[in-house]
Amino acid sequence: MPDSLSNASEKLGMPPGSLIHVGDVLEAESRISVIDYDHEHLEESSIQSVDELLQFRKKETVTWVNIEGLKNVELTELIGQHFHIHPLVLEDILNTHQRPKFEEYDNYLYIVLKGLSLETDNDSFSVNHEQISILLFDEIVFTFKEKKDDMFLPLIQRIRSSTGRVRSLGTDYLTYTILDTIVDQNFVLLDSLDVKIDSVEDELLSEPTTETLVMIQRIKRELIDIRRSISPLRELLSSILRSDTKLIHEKTRIYFRDVFDHALRITETIDSYRDMLSGLLDIYISSVSNKMNEVMKVLTLFASIFIPLSFIAGIYGMNFENMPVLKWRWGYPAIWGVFITVPICLILFFKKKKWL
């Protein structure tokens, strides 16, 4: 597990807008990568200081600044000073326990959401959550990520290939593609969970064990956690669509509606998976109950066979002198004949009733 740099309790008593990183440290160092482009040219670079970003404010190109790693609080503070970002927004960027939301300011938009990915290790798995903050300006887009990964690689390759709308449209369309990339990652996650659910179902119908129950409960718990991260997306995207901001052009809004539809599909898929798991849990309980019934049936049949034998043996085991056939010469063989005949008759009777 990553080490925690600080937690929310350390901010108690501090004024609003105090910049302290809250959450797990997933990257030891912060990295700044810049992609500057229009329909004719593309420039990629890694920069070391915020001052180097100022040159992109005066250009008529689209600039995407991606910051990976939030440990460097001073870096976030400097970006806020140079680009006049509200201290409360900076505070939210550094607090990685934010709920997905959309906020509108005078010259920029602030969006925060969760990026989800599945980490597997043999039979175990875990869903990783990463907070991603987006700042949309007229000429530049900032993304703040907790760690370095390949989440945006498909989008970067699209930009490099100089095909499609992304190279010819503005920062609002770039923001849409970033949102779309993050949301579509959830489909990959759900596909992986679907495979695990199918595996659990096959195991359940063949030879269920206590590990099967543990896996069902774990997937259900992860789905609840995923839904908690995904559900606010609908409200977030609805707020974007309702906004009358000039930073999002009318022709771009239709693409945001597409992301909204994706969020709905993801939520519906999660709900259907939860229903499936509830059904699998019922099947597991029924399977265990049926196995217990089978065991009880076998024990009952054995008891039914031995009860009359025990009754007969108990009668002739009493210490009375005057008992019928007590001194009969053929008494011992006769009683064995009864002991053999009674079970055979009972077994034939059980089979006739289809209890065996």
Task: Looking at this protein, list some descriptive labels.
single chain, 356 residues, Beta Polymerase, domain 2, 9 strands, disordered N terminus
Provide a brief overview of the structure.
With 356 residues, the chain is α+β, with helices and mostly antiparallel strands. The chain has helices spanning 73-82, 87-94, 153-160, 171-206, 210-230, 232-242, 250-315, 331-352, and strands at residues 4-6, 23-24, 31-37, 42-47, 62-68, 101-104, 109-121, 124-136, 140-145.
Task: State the separation between the terminal residues, measured CA to CA.
Answer: 55 Å
Radius of gyration: 34 Å
What's the level 1 CATH class of the largest domain? Alpha Beta
**Quantity of strands, as a count:** 9
- The CATH architecture name of the largest domain reads 2-Layer Sandwich
InterPro entries: CorA_cytoplasmic_dom (IPR045861), CorA_TM1_TM2 (IPR045863), Mg/Co-transport_prot_CorA (IPR004488), MgTranspt_CorA/ZnTranspt_ZntB (IPR002523)
Protein name: Magnesium transport protein CorA
Family: Belongs to the CorA metal ion transporter (MIT) (TC 1.A.35) family.
Function: Mediates influx of magnesium ions.
